[in-house]
Amino acid sequence: MERLNSKIQDSQFIDTTLRKQYLSSIRTKLFLGVLLLFLIFLVAIVSVLTGSMNLGIHDVLKALLRDTENSYIVRNIRLTRVVGAALAGASMGVAGAVMQNVLKNPLASPFTLGVSHGAAFGAAFAIIVLGAGQTHSFGTEAVTVFKSYPVVLSAFSGALITVILILLLSFLRNISPEGIILAGVALSSLFGSATMFLQYFASDFQVAATVFWTFGDIGKAGWTENRLMFIAFILCFIYFFFQRWNFNAMLWGDEVAKSLGVNVKFLRVSGMFLSAFVVSVCTAFLGIIGFIGLISPHVIRLLIGNDHRFLIPYSALFGAFLLSVSDLVSRTILAPVVLPVGIITSFAGAPMFFYLLIRRRKI
């Protein structure tokens, strides 16, 4: 009897210890979420205050609360840029987390799978062949592309074509996750070559407009673009979050997930399609912004692990923070010259990609 009581006490002690450890882990993860929100808010404030025209906090608050001489700058230039960076970063972060799970490959992201290059080809086709996206240049400023929805729709179509091709290769030929990454590299090369082919027969001004579009610039975002990016993000995020337990089940393998009642094939197709959709919307409006979807999920995994209850929302938060910081750097590093944010993210993402390649040892 004493032995039985001792075993019961030991079992209760273990249960209590595990419960405390679990609650401590949850509190730590919740604290990380609050910290990320605070950092995003802090970067947003600094970004709104940063620009060629020096504005203090008092000036910004006055411009937001009532019409002043600075209202247009604050509301329609700086604030739209801040919101656009947060939305695009969150979209790419959550898309990267889902793609890496459903493809079972840590190197998967919208950029490495060729989605961005497909969008670039679509934009080039609209600008050069369809004559959409009128261009202009003021003085020494770079060539810009007017908000032209034929360009946006063509870029979106090019990105979705890339995903459809990858899905067809994946399910018709049962290609491995490593093979899908190689297929993405091949599609990137294909669409890159097709874009250069179009540029070869284009005028100098059309080539300049196409190249400028591919740089990736948060400054292209207006309130209309931000609303559309928000709608795409919130719809996809809600679906991904409701599937969080199914994504966790897939970590144990397809067979285990199927035994738990998960429709693995549907979840993989829907996850890939919606991830590509939300990134395509951002890419169509802002141009190519690489590696945010690759970096964000890996940083979050290092901090909290693979639990998709937290990985999905925190990848979105860290993506928003990372792109917001990158945009701030692009505006200040060579001020008053504003660099395209795609250049900054590529500089940051390339070392991470090589690190993952080395850690994985083979692909």
From TrEMBL:
InterPro entries assigned to the protein according to its UniProt record, in alphabetical order: ABC_BtuC-like, ABC_transptr_permease_BtuC
GO cellular component terms, semicolon-separated: plasma membrane
Protein name in the entry: Iron ABC transporter permease
GO function term, MF aspect, one: transmembrane transporter activity
TM region(s), chain numbering: 30-57, 77-99, 111-132, 152-172, 179-199, 230-252, 272-296, 308-325, 337-358
Domain of life: Bacteria
Organism taxonomic ancestry: Bacteria, Pseudomonadati, Nitrospirota, Thermodesulfovibrionia, Thermodesulfovibrionales
Family according to the record: Belongs to the binding-protein-dependent transport system permease family. FecCD subfamily.
Keywords: Cell membrane, Membrane, Transmembrane, Transmembrane helix, Transport
Topology in membrane: Multi-pass membrane protein
